[in-house]
Amino acid sequence: MNKSPKILVVDDEPQLLRVLRRSLTAHRFDVRSASEGEAALEVFNDWSPDLVITDLSMPVMDGLTLCRELRRVSKLPIIVLSVKGEERTKVEALDAGADDYVTKPFGIDELLARVRAALRRAPAEDSAHGILTAGDFELDKAAYRISVRGKEVHLTPKEFELLSFLIENRGRVLTHRTLLAAVWGGDFVLQPEYLRVFIGNLRKKIELDPSNPKHITTEPWVGYRFDPSS
Amino acid sequence: MVSGRVRKALASRSTGYVIALLGVISLTILLEPVHFQISPTTVALTFLMLVVLIATFWGSLPALVSSVLAMLSFNYFFLPPVRTWTISDPENWVAWFVFTVTAVVTGQLSASVKRRALEAEARSREVEGLYEQLSEAFELASETEALRRSERLKSALLDAVSHDIRTPLTSIKASVTTLLEDSAPTGSAGAERSTGLGEDGREEMLQIIDEETDRLNRFVESLIELAKIQAGEIRPKRESSTVGDIVAAALSKASKQLNDRSVKVLIPDGLPEIDVDSALISEALFALVENAAKYSPAGEELTIEAWSENGKRIGFAVEDRGPGIDRAVREKVFDKFYRAIHESDAGVVYPKGTGLGLSIAKGIVEAHKGTIRALDPARGNRGARVEFTLPITDEQEPENSGRR
Fold first, then answer.
1. Closest chain B CA to residue A104
2. I need a surface site. Which of A26, A83, A214, B383 has the fewest CB within 10 A?
3. Do residue A95 and residue A164 come from a single domain?
4. Cβ separation of B204 and A109 shorter than 8 Å?
């Protein structure tokens, strides 16, 4: 990757934009900023950034609407900046297609780590020969097989669907709603207890220490995140 | 003393019949020996009285019974020829007939009056009961409503305070961690990809930290100031001041907020000096100016105006050419943390600033026994006007000065 990844930062707080512009530029990102969603969409159309970092509450067009608008036309990674007290909106933004969130106030290293993770994941979507390798995991959808650390795991059909969805969306924060809709279909989205049972079973099969999971981590009140690395 | 049970027994209808019988008999025994000395009219009237009494206390049926008994007794003992059921004199026939009709009708009428009175009493008791229930329900409902509203207010206050504290903190934290990362030894995560902030970048981060800590401090100061005003801790140190000095002080304090905006100052000549705490009043005026600058587009002119009311009060007003203040919220703008907020899908968007300015101004003005309000602009048809008026002197000065 020779070209600097392009990041669009959207926030209505000018001081924070100043910090992020400086900081991200120092880390070899190409940065532009906007103070609300509509301006952000204009920059997006002119500049086609590789990633968007957006605040949630902004005048004119808020972050949630921006997420929805962006998802209609693009799969680019979106990281949401939220504050405590905005949990519901944050989950809605994740449901609407945001990939991850960082809670304000945040350390710049945390934001950078999320940015890198989101950018790393983005181009690896297409898998050679239908086999997707990510960290400890190997997913062969055609053969209906998943291997962890070189060993095939025995999964029920639903567990297979859930784990392959997690592997395909590794690194993203996946809300309960997203997971339920993806694996069980729209009718089950209101029954998160299904999910808890299946996640528990999956952890027993793939984690080295199921009581201290490293691959499937819980995002409290939001959902789960899958990290394939060892 | 008549016990409750006896009173109840007395009130029952069968008692009424017994009383009717006994009454007629005793009246007969009483009057019969003297019936030669008194006219039948007296006897008839006495019986009528009995009937009315029985009707009043025991109702229409005992009254009817007593009427019949009285009619019989009147005929047998008192109308000649006495001790017979016959009546010789046609005049006495008329007397007997009139008596009977009168007794029955009066009895029934008194009984129905009594019944109506009882009904009315019952109705009024019922209405009273209903009213009590209703007012209890109202009280309960309004208490719940007040509680609910104060809970909502509390959480809105908390949201506002945490927003005002967290916004500068977010910039500070991001700047500091950027600086820390920049100075971290190479080899730490991500450092190999960093070009470094450079002198400029470090300078800017430090500047931001400086500005944002000031912003936090300003917020804390205004919170404390407001708390003091509300606790009544601020007693104005009144001294003779001129309106011009107060306006000038407010404008110089607001130079940052005003940027290069033009401000029209309208102060008529010959305004009297006023006995106020000039530092506090210019603070209040500053809050009005800051508010006007915040809610009107950059570059739009502001107007500051002062006037005298009959030489007894002095008024100050600040007008802007912004969107104006909706009539419905003109009282609320002086509430703590009230802001012209913009509700969106993602929650509440706060304009810059603390939302404390106008409530501080209100506190100061009220500490001077003045009044403050939001109005339509006096000139032009667009914008907002906030004005306050103060008495020129504190009439109760001697009383107050002792407490300072």
1. B170
2. A214
3. no
4. no
Highest mean pLDDT among B3-7, B60-64, B226-230, B394-398: B60-64
Kindly provide the ipTM of the predicted complex, given to two decimals: 0.78
Tell whether A195 and A104 lie within a shared domain.
no
Is B342's CB within 8 Å of A22's CB?
Answer: no
Task: Give phi and psi for B146, each to the nearest 5.
Answer: -60, -40
Distance CA B228, CA B235 (A): 10
Instruction: Check if A19 contacts B (Cβ < 8 Å).
Output: yes
Chain A contacts of B171, Cβ < 8 Å?
13, 15-16, 18-19
Hey, is the C-beta of B182 within 8 angstroms of any chain A C-beta?
A: yes
- Interatomic CA distance for residues B380 and B386, integer angstroms: 15
Q: Mind listing the domains of chain B with CATH numbers?
A: 4-133 (no CATH), 153-184+198-230 (1.10.287), 239-401 (3.30.565.10)
Q: Does B169 touch chain A (CB under 8 A)?
A: yes
Residue B162 buriedness (CB in 10 A; 0-12 / 13-18 / 19+): middle
Nearest to B178 among A22, A59, A104 (CB): A22
Nearest-CA neighbor of B234 among B281, B273, B275, B274? B281
Give the pLDDT confidence score for residue B191 in this predicted structure: 47
Spatial separation of the C-alpha atoms in residues A90 and A103, rounded to whole Å: 10
Cα B74 to Cα B47: distance, rounded to the nearest angstrom: 8
Query: For residue A167, is it within any domain?
Result: yes
